[in-house]
Amino acid sequence: MPLYLRAESVAESLGRLQRSSAQSRLCEFLIGLRTLALSGTDHVQVAESIPQFVQALDELTACVPEGAPTTFDGEPYINPFGTSRGRTAGRAYKGRRFPSNGPSNTMHGWATQQDRPFDIITDTRPKGIRRRAVTQDQLRKFLLLKGASLDERPRLLDAAVWYFRAADLDTRFDAEPTEEQLAAAFVDDIALTTEDIHALFVTEGPGVQGAD
């Protein structure tokens, strides 16, 4: 029998992610990592024409699963990270053109930024990304609000709950997962490193190790 996370749990996690110290471009970072993980290579093109990119974007931002009835016809995507604060408030929902002019354009625009987490490959069409070696401080500078406390970072478990919001947990885990199993599966799918986790997320319990 299919097993899903409670809608209330997903909504609570989404609210905390939106109020966290994450900059909205943390979403693009995770989409980029997931696209790389799906490609199985150290570099990948990011564009609407790339199936792995579209899958990653849907997994992290689609309001509802593909084919499900929805009232989100005008804005079927949502960026869950840091989008209930300040000038980003009210800009969480994204329109139908988001796959073509959203995360890929954002990542391409990082090419000259000092603390960027990806090298942008500009000699291919469409452009691509490759993971770049950066420190935890650089990750925080680039992806978290300046001056925010470490306790204000997004919770790793909340990110995992959001990621698995529409997943049949019985198919993935063969049973109802523990919080640690849910977080570990998210880390594995995104291919987060231990440094990524320590830099960007609040963790609870025994902790989850990244893909080092």
Form type: globular
How many angstroms does the end-to-end distance come to?
35 Å
Widest sheet: strand order?
Answer: 1-5-4
Q: N-to-C SSE series?
A: HHEHEEHHEEHHHHH
Compute the gyration radius: what is it? 16 Å
Mean pLDDT: 90
The main pleated sheet reads as: 3 strands, antiparallel
Number of domains: 1
Structural class, by secondary structure, is: mainly alpha
Strand content: 5-15%
Helix amount, in percent?
Answer: 40-55%
Query: Low-confidence stretches at least 5 residues in length (pLDDT < 50)?
Result: none
> Count of DSSP helices?
10
Total count of strands: 5
Short description:
It contains ten helices and five strands, in the order ααβαββααββααααα. By secondary structure, it is mostly helical.
List keywords for this structure.
10 helices; two-stranded antiparallel ribbon; mainly alpha; 212 residues; 7% strand; globular
